[in-house]
Amino acid sequence: MNAVTNVTVNNVAVKSVSKRFGATVALDGVDAQFGPGVNGLLGPNGAGKTTLLRILATVLAADSGDVDAFGVDPSTGDGRLAVRRRLGYLPQEPGFHRHFSAFDFVDYIAILKEWAERRTRHDEVRRVLTLVGLADVMHKRISQLSGGMRRRVGIAQALIGRPDLLVLDEPTAGLDPEQRLRFRELLGTESAGATVLLSTHQTDDVAALCQHVVVLLAGSVRFSGTPTALAALADGRVWLADERDPRADLAWVTGDGLVRHVGEPPARAQHVTPTVEDGYLVLAGRAGHTGASEPDPAVRVS
Ligand SMILES: Nc1ncnc2c1ncn2[C@@H]1O[C@H](COP(=O)(O)OP(=O)(O)OP(=O)(O)O)[C@@H](O)[C@H]1O
Ligand SMILES: [Mg+2]
Fold this sequence. Notes:
The protein is α/β, with parallel strands linked by helices. Helix content is 31%, strand content 25%. The chain has helices spanning 3-9, 49-56, 77-84, 102-112, 118-131, 147-158, 177-190, 203-209, 227-232, 276-283; strands at residues 12-21, 24-34, 37-42, 64-69, 87-90, 165-169, 195-199, 212-217, 220-225, 238-241, 250-253, 259-262, 270-271, 299-301. Strand 8 and strand 9 (220-225) form a beta hairpin. Residues 1-8 and 289-296 have low confidence and may be disordered. The structure holds adenosine-5'-triphosphate and magnesium ion (MG). Magnesium ion is lined by residues 49-50, 92, 169.
């Protein structure tokens, strides 16, 4: 692949994408664009994150709307194959053959990805398992590994061959703090030039990792922009006080004993700089005026 192809093709766009499961509307006319770098998807349980990621990973077809992945339409057989050849995908709940060792499982995925030459394939399998810190246990059965280690086996198989499109559904769920930091580090090096889409419930992962963030609420895009712009939605709505203010939408005691509030502040409140989490809470309507009944258009800040 040459540099020109890389620049023009590593974009993913979804236009008016909808998906239903029976009576449940999982995605309701989603429009979003994702370019090279790390793109985060935030949203409450059931918002449609996994459904969108499965569509982008060509596991699921949209009911309507258009998907363009690197200039290719994955609704055709040839298009799907072209996307899959450039894709690394971590499902939210990967199915493992529990009797496989971590090495055998990742090797099996590499075979499916058409790595025919055994020696180079085994080198790649060792490389990705070492990247996620599993070098010492790669020959243990997956059934004997901890939950966080299994998550890392899933991350390792997604990294095979440094794919141009990395779709990671909650990659940091269940990882201990050190492993979450290692994940951030490895993503920085492994995904250079790639387009990464990841879902998470960790707003600090978004702040630390993502150049672009999309917030999905009830199957619709409610925000698209930078993490800084998401945090800024809570400007003037986060303050500290000695006592809980009953008018706040959300309030909790912080480590230093002060009460942090999100909502409509009183006069002369001690304002603090909002975080991505504060912006998300305001947007999600749990700490702001954007209740579900209010038909707010999506906030777009580039
Ligand atoms: N295979 C399915 N059959 C029926 N309903 C489904 C299916 N997959 C998803 N749904 C429904 O679609 C909606 C969106 O689900 P989805 O898994 O995309 O949410 P999510 O944002 O990934 O949530 P979470 O944060 O819990 O992972 C939910 O209402 C869910 O119950
Ligand atoms: Mg999900």
